[in-house]
Amino acid sequence: MKNNYVNFLVGLFVLFGIGALVFMSITIGGASVSNSGNYTLVAKFENSSGLKEGAFVEMSGVRVGLIQSINYDPQAYESVVKISLDNEITVPDDSIASIRTSGIIGDRFVKISTGGSEVNMADGEEFIETESSISIEELISKYMFSQDK
Amino acid sequence: MVKPIITVEHLFAQYGDTHVLKDVNLEVNPGEILVVMGGSGSGKSTLLNHMLGLKTPTSGTIMIDGVNIFTAKNKQLRNLRKKMGVAFQGGALLSSLTVADNVRLPLEHNTSLDTQTIDIMVRMKLELMNMAGTGHLMPSELSGGMLKRAGLARAVIMDPKLLFFDEPSAGLDPTTAVELDELILTLRDAMNMTIVVVTHELESVFKIADRVVVLFAGEVVANGTVDEIRNSPDERIQNMINRQPNTQRDDGEVYLNRLLNKDKN
Amino acid sequence: MNALFNSVSNLGAATRKNIDSIGLATLFLLRIVSSLFTGLVSFKQVIKQIYFIGNRSLIVIIVAALFTGMVVALQFYDTLVRFGSVDLLGSAVALSLIKELGPVMTALMVIARVGSATCSEIGIMRNEQQFDALDCMAINSYRYVMLPRLLAALFCVPMLTAVFDLVGIGGGYIVGVHIQGESPGAYIQGVMDTISFKDVLVGQIKSLVFGLFIMWIPLYYGFYLHLNQKNMGAEGVSNGTTQAVVMSAIIMLFSDYIVSSLAL
Amino acid sequence: MNIEIETHNNYQVVKLYGEVDLSNSRSIKLDIIKLIKSKNNIIVDFTHLQYIDSSGMASLVEAFNEARENDTEFHIVGANGSPLQVLQLTRLNTVFNLADSVSAVSNNG
């Protein structure tokens, strides 16, 4: 009898613990159980300073994807950023990718401003238009030097 | 000539620089009760630990039932241990298990008997130890004597051929001690066990022993029947029997030096 | 000259002794793990240990997590408000809990509650010759006594960590939303968006590593009480327990750094 | 260890030879209980038994209990030497119905 009681409590603990673990992994951690698949888009920036792999991609202020990789293209003297998006997300082919900052000290992220085209971008395609990072240091120095003058 | 069940040959043991056992030789014949007697520090516990295979000696061999326990393979040793029962000084019951669960432990791990059979065997052994109805108690609820008897019940649960008993009557009141001595004799007579008892209690030695081995400072100083030991001319044994201290008495200069801690140099 | 020689040779002796104990502890762990393959683990014992390590720690973990989450939220709020980035509160609390504070605080609570109790229990078993008795009964004490405790710790510590993380985030919510008046949506969104599965995984790997150390070390100190302590009695047990607790905490924090640096 | 089963009047006589110990007590118990389940009266013959350990004794206690539940008779006959001592040591001689020989039981019944 007493042993059964202990077994019951242990069973409860196991259910509770596994429940917490699964909840944390899926809801908070966003581990997708039914992965609907991803596709990749490429955006080339003149300057991607401050952007990191794993940073977010937003459309209309909603997080829709992640930065997969950031590489330097020595031929074009450009930064090549690969963006991983969920298959459900469609991007018109005249959309603009821009690098933004959340708050003053926040991280850099990529914002996709949707265009009006009826054709959507396919896997591996490249953004036609991009906006590079705005460097706070540059902005501040510009402001300070213009004051001097 | 009976073949001995235990043979200890040229056993030496040392801890650090202290020689605890110096060339111990002895034999135990089947069906006899051998008492290893000695005061504290005589090395009798060390000898027991070596016979149980818990410690490895500096040199020497111990053969039990034809197996050299220091070179035996794990499996051989395990099979040998199923035929050996050990009752430890304080019972050595697992503190997290009830008395009954402690007693059934060897059966559960080493046999494939049905649970009901095991239950009956446990109750039979507790009954034999005069501990009927205590199976549900935890070791912490038992008195010293009961712990020893529960430990003995566990030691004999597999009906071993060979039983080791460490200090059966140490720390017990005289009545309980006598009861335990009776139990040891019964076990030998009814179950035909060979029993090795390690003790410093003279009364039980003379009562139960078929043969006595006297250890003194790691050496066997006598090995014989109870009467031979009683009549031994050895001064150390007579001192032990007459409860005289065995320490060397130095007087005068030597004593003064010892008090002043100068005898080292 | 002589004093110098002595102190150098003392250092040598101490080093040799420490290397010896590391070797012995490793051997000890190998014996426990290999006993897994030589026979059946007592399921009953594992359940008993899960009850002791898991269920009985749950309340203390929940209380500790609640206050940890609350104080972390309070401190972050005070910091973030100076940068005008209070909307990052949820992210900050969740990240620091899941990646660092959850595993470490849970491990510390388990060391205090389970590690000390285990070490003294095993030490007393050694004192009372219970391991000798198990040997003489041909029962493998590594499999019968040590393995269930190790398995239960490896199983329970990650779960307790998960509980700690969630309750801690809840505690942060109480401070952020109900006391400081941040919007509930911003807090929850911050938590949900910032944490990636990798963060959860790193936290869980940490707690698994901690679970190993915080059970292994007390078991080792208890089992080899007769080798490590001058005095086998009650004093030896209490010394051994103290050493085991201190050592578990230090090695746990050290391994925390190693795992963190490998994971980043 | 050997076991022989004979019919004697309305009794099944289970003759035990050699030694009963941990390795064979279970199979003996199962044999005897099978006989009891089919409503046989049992006589266990100890005459040629040299040794029986406590697992054997416990098995016989189980069989004895089974016999009582099935309202059949259960006797132990011819106990001598070490088995008799074990019976006395465990005080099971006060539990079982003991008799000297098979004929002493079967002729009365």
Automatic annotation (TrEMBL), chain C:
UniProt GO molecular function: phospholipid transporter activity
Keyword presence, ATP-binding: no
Keyword set includes Transmembrane: yes
Localization, UniProt: Cell inner membrane; Membrane
Keywords: Cell inner membrane, Cell membrane, Membrane, Transmembrane, Transmembrane helix, Transport
Main localisation: membrane
NCBIfam families noted in UniProt: MlaE family lipid ABC transporter permease subunit (TIGR00056)
Protein's name according to its UniProt entry: ABC transporter permease
Automatic annotation (TrEMBL), chain D:
GO molecular function: anti-sigma factor antagonist activity
Gene3D superfamilies for the chain: STAS domain (3.30.750.24)
Residues annotated as domain STAS: 1-109
SUPFAM superfamilies xref list: SpoIIaa-like (SSF52091)
Homology family: Belongs to the anti-sigma-factor antagonist family.
Cited PANTHER family: ANTI-SIGMA FACTOR ANTAGONIST TM_1081-RELATED, ANTI-SIGMA FACTOR ANTAGONIST TM_1081-RELATED-RELATED
Name of the featured protein: Anti-sigma factor antagonist
Protein source organism: Shewanella frigidimarina
Species classification: Bacteria, Pseudomonadati, Pseudomonadota, Gammaproteobacteria, Alteromonadales
